[in-house]
Design goal:
The chain is an alpha/beta fold and 231 residues long. The chain is 20% helix and 27% strand.
Length: 231
């Protein structure tokens, strides 16, 4: 099965449609699938629902799709650093489903494992719990959260082999593995494609069974908040 494609647009060909549900990896600007997001912008696909920790910044990451009004709903943990995200939410132009970060990561992972729902204590007694099933276990109250099953997953990795085995670099792993797992189709952009068999099996972070299409590209790698010590 061919998994390597020459460009982001070609890797997404035949997968995009209006109103679809996309899971995106990354945290802040770290490990975000910037090339695939740009290709979605250029394709003009609209009324999108994104499950992603956040939406990047105004002119980078999912933020570029908010600028063009291609996103209908965000399922996220964090609104900060993106003024347009905040503006659209407060004005009622954008639907927002807040999730605690750990809950969002587990919802993605659960979907990738075929688990439709699970119980967690996180959010009990807050607005997060409104309208959700409550259940007691050993005298403690939990709420049920549903697994995420996305139409498409887009993620960023460091290395891949031709079969789709992935290695992520340090903290850029973040939400990428669970996001990749929960998409019916997973498209990955990487910095390097290496020969099959050259990756140490014990160092593979996500097996190729989850990966359907791969592109190699050059990445901007922005720093969201540059902090340095005084000399």
């Amino acid at each position: 099965m061919k998994k390597i494609y020459p460009t982001a647009a070609e890797a997404l060909d035949g997968l995009l449609h209006d109103g679809m549900f996309i899971a995106a990896g990354g945290f802040g600007l770290c490990g975000i699938p910037e090339l695939l997001l740009q290709a979605i912008k250029e394709a003009g696909t609209k009324d999108l629902t994104f499950a992603s920790n956040n939406a990047g910044v105004d002119d980078f990451g999912i933020g570029i799709l908010l600028q063009t009004k291609q996103v209908k709903k965000m399922i996220s943990s964090y609104v900060g650093e993106n003024a347009e995200f905040m503006r659209q939410y407060l004005s009622g132009e954008l639907e927002l489903e807040f999730n605690p970060q750990g809950t969002l990561a587990e919802r993605m992972r659960a979907g990738g494992c075929g688990i439709p729902g699970f119980y967690t204590k996180t959010g009990v007694g807050t607005v997060i719990a409104d309208g959700k099933e409550h259940k007691d276990f050993n005298g403690e109250t939990y709420i049920m959260e549903e697994g995420i099953f996305a139409d498409l997953a887009i993620v960023k990795a460091w290395k891949a082999d031709a079969t789709g085995n992935l290695v992520f670099r340090k903290t850029a792993r973040n939400f990428n593995p669970p996001a990749a797992m929960c998409g019916k189709t997973c498209v990955v952009e990487v910095e390097e494609i290496v020969p099959t068999g050259s990756l140490d099996p014990d160092s593979i972070h996500l097996p190729g069974i989850y990966v359907h299409r791969i592109i190699r590209g050059d990445h901007e790698k922005r720093i969201e908040q540059r902090t340095v010590r005084t000399a």
